[in-house]
Amino acid sequence: MTETLALDFENVSKSFAANSDKSSAINVVVDSLSMQVRKGEFFSVLGPSGCGKTTTLRMISGLETPTSGTIRMSGRVVNGVHPHKRNVHTVFQKYALFPHLNVFENVAFGLRMKKVSSEQIKRRVNRMLEMVRLETYADRMIQQLSGGEQQRVALVRALVNEPEILLLDEPLGALDLKLREQMQVELVAIQKQLGTTFIFVTHDQGEALTLSDRIAIMNRGRIEQIGTPTEVYEHPASIFVAKFVGTSNVFEGTSEFESNSQGASFVAIQTSLGRLRAKFHNGNTRFHPRDVPSAAFIVRPEKIRVRVTSPSGESGSADLNSVRGTLVERTYFGPTTQIKLKINDQAAPLIALIANQASVKAPTLKLGEKYYAVWDPGDSIIVPSDARVAAALDAPISQPLGSTATA
Amino acid sequence: MLVPSALWFAIFLIIPILIVMSLSLLHKGSYGRIEFTLDFSNYARALEPVYLKIILRSLWLATYTTGLCLLLAYPLAYLMARSRPRTRKILLALVVVPFWTNFVIRIHALKLIIGETGLLNQILTELSIITRPLQMTDNAFGVGMGMVYNYLPFMVLPLFVALEKLDFTLLDAAYDLGASRLQSFFRVLFPLSMPGIVTGSLFVFIPAFGEFVIPDMLGGSQSMYVGNIITETFLKSRDWPFGSALSTFLVLLAMVAFMIVLSRENKTQGAKF
Questions:
Q1: For residue A212, what are the domain limits?
Q2: Residues in A touching B273 (Cβ below 8 Å)
Q3: Is the entire prediction scored with pTM above 0.80?
Q4: Whole-number pLDDT of residue A395
Q5: Pick from A40, A127, A277, B248: most CB atoms within 10 A?
Q6: ipTM score
């Protein structure tokens, strides 16, 4: 098992002395973090700024030493091993290319440090530059390159050393949208071609969903969920994950167990919208209500259908979640239309995303009119309100590591 | 806007230099008078072995002062550039504070510390580390101490300015690519701080080459450098033409050094853009 793991974090914590001069307070930046990255995986660490993801990255590269816990690489404990003794290389946020060296020398830097013969350096650097179509740029200085070109130099400067793990610290943040999408495609292609383990740090959830085999979502120094993009999006483990990855409607309340006459089981939750149901099984609810009474109901906007009439009386409608509200906002996105329904006196409206098909005609829905929002209990998630409880529940489900949805 | 500074340079720099240059081509008369006849012998005299030796000694003094200042200033400037704003301000103040007292008083104070009956010798004797006072003044050691002490800030400040602008993630990148601390220094930090090193070295080297007060006060009677010879020639032997020839020589040497450094700097800049 350990041979297939490129990286293994076991209860790793990192704290710094707080920045104020007077207090001796300690700032915990990474809090008993455990995660495992398999060889050849495209693994993303996703979280808002200040969640500890950059510190996590610096501990992998060796620029920081963990305060406690164990970091293993291919089974070997690497706590306190100096960066230049690890086979890990980084693509830095603002590239950190050497301004006094040209493109060739930038890429050759790592090989020169390893005292590789100059003919081999020439061969390997040129092969890398060809891979990113910069072979004619070898003699240029860094300041003469565009952002996208600098990005590619930074990428091959790290890759030429054939690292076991390549770390990418928000490498696409400085690029404009078009170039970013282009680089995303290129990154995935290069990763598949070389089979190198990529650990990608980002705050952009869309980027993480598109690129990754698996994603770890971090918040306040802790991991809230690890899973494939589908798992993370379809079955968020906590309120934070539901809100950070994509858009979610979240309503908190007290959970109860419920079953219908056909023997199907639900977890129901009494919210300010009324009683809402989710299916009782691993994906939708991972706990029994008697263990975790305080919970939150989550439904993604695109799972909601909008009706003019009440669904009651339709077949199988007994189990459906249905609420009625006033249309307060309508935004046309092209392929979809987003609408907001204000329900009772709820401050947060219910958000629904409707595909623009002939049968729906969302653009014709009128502001101020009342509509029904309807969705299936199977499209609903209930998670514990407490993030720590949620994280503990998440551990078993992300274990079946076989699925590679992006392959 | 350029007129005032141009006037300033013309009146206080260019004209005096031209006067000194013309004086150097004239003949010395009796009682310090100057005879207006063209005479190149002053330069021939300046190149006599006695004077050449002194010029070389001065060059050596300026060189090792620059070298020692660089060695001492670099770690300090690095520390300043990497410390938090508060610590940085304190360190900067410590570098500048000595300038609040007069130069001669500062050198005299140094004499009180490292002199034969100075503070340092007293402490070392009291602690029985030495039995006889160490000879730290009235010799080359004293001159070196005084020079480094006085010129250090001129090296620290340009270095600090250069290092402060530096992106230190470049060092992280170097470590990440397998460079040791020493390699990161010589391959990344040192070349990127070159502008500061060059400026600081010029600020120290040029005035150190003509320095005469520090050798006078700390070097003892037999310490002779170009600066001392020039003052003596002007004030004691009253030989203005010869003094002018030596001065011109000094100015030319400093200019040549400056030109060499500048042209090399331009070359590296040219490669960058």
A1: 2-234
A2: 141, 143-144
A3: no
A4: 55
A5: A277
A6: 0.78
